[in-house]
Design brief:
This protein is an alpha/beta fold and 323 residues long. The protein has 15 helices and seven strands. Helix 10 links the parallel strand 5 and strand 6.
Length: 323
């Protein structure tokens, strides 16, 4: 099977079922407005790709919101997504009050983007806190960009995890200075997954339900003491882990003049919080309530870990400890 056929595996009936659009409507959008780019097999069957499916999903939502098909049919996926989010949130990023700023999220992987953009998923995710600002087909596309704006969250779907994929993800993260990276994968080596987690990334293997995915995204946002998610601003993002277990163990073993051995105790607390944070991320969810609880525990432990990392830096400066 050619690479082109592998990338175009949907028949029009499947697109109709998944996007919730009647087949005759899809045919009109294609023939009259050139909304899709199917290929033909040797048997003259028309096959559609992931991008066509995502475009169909977004176009339907925009038409339901009052946009005319003739004005949006030829927009690319990024433009369709941005138009949809502007309509859903009522105001552009520049027009919103600073107390309700959005966290920018870039999605890499068309299938994952379609899940994020689906109405069913939108009911579970924090619509007023997280905004999809960019959609890319794969890591190579994300590396070449350009991004609409720097993404604070990178949500990435890959089929396999290996060292080259990890390196590519690190490149995209560095381009954006992203605060958090969430990686969903199908197959991969455990060593690579562990290395990515040690680097501060959230890594989960499929299958993962839409609700679990929404809660995983929520888990990188800070929470208030009243157990509700606050109005999220960029400063409310939980930063990835800064110090490895090896660094913390080294600091804990250093003798200092600080009363009560503060560097040791702070380093040990950070290690414990980081361990519990990872445990909460990976804990088995048997229900939607489980997923929500684990996301909350991840957020709380991550927020506390970040605060103690800041405290460790203060202690280290006072004692002249090199971190």
């Amino acid at each position: 099977m050619s690479a082109e056929l592998k990338n175009h595996s949907y028949r029009i009936g499947t697109i109709s079922k998944l996007a919730g659009i009647p087949v005759p409507t899809l045919r009109v959008w294609e023939s009259r407005y050139a909304a899709f780019t199917p290929i033909k097999t040797e048997g003259q069957h028309r096959l559609y790709g992931e991008e066509d499916l995502l475009r169909a999903t977004l176009i339907k939502q925009l038409c339901d919101e009052g946009h005319g098909i003739s004005t949006i049919a030829n927009l690319n996926v990024q433009a369709l997504s941005q138009l949809h989010h502007k309509h859903r949130n009522g105001k552009t990023l520049e027009e919103r009050p600073t107390s309700a700023q959005h966290v920018a999220m870039a999605v890499i992987g068309l299938g994952l983007a379609r899940r994020i953009e689906a109405k069913k998923f939108a009911l579970n995710i924090l619509c007023d806190s997280v905004e999809v600002t960019d959609i890319f087909a794969d890591l190579a596309s994300a590396q070449s960009g350009p991004f609409e704006k720097p993404a604070e969250i990178l949500l990435i779907k890959v089929n396999t995890l290996h060292e080259i994929v990890m390196r590519d993800i690190e490149v995209v993260k560095e381009i954006n200075k992203a605060t958090q990276v969430i990686v969903i994968y199908n197959f991969g080596r455990d060593q690579v997954a562990h290395a990515m987690r040690a680097a501060g990334m959230l890594v989960r293997r499929e299958p993962i339900s839409d609700y679990e995915l929404a809660e995983l995204i929520r888990s990188v946002l800070t929470v208030e003491a009243n157990h509700t998610l606050r109005e999220v601003a960029p400063s409310a993002m939980i930063p990835a882990r800064k110090y490895s277990d090896e660094t913390l163990a080294r600091v804990a073993g250093i003798s200092t003049n600080v009363l009560c051995e503060c560097p040791k105790h702070v380093a040990e607390i950070i290690a414990q919080l980081a361990s519990f944070e990872q445990y909460s991320q990976e804990c088995l969810n048997k229900s939607t309530e489980d997923a929500h609880l684990h996301a909350y525990l991840t957020s709380v432990s991550g927020s506390a870990r970040a605060l103690f990392e800041h405290a460790l830096e203060k202690v280290a400066r006072h004692e002249g400890i090199e971190l």
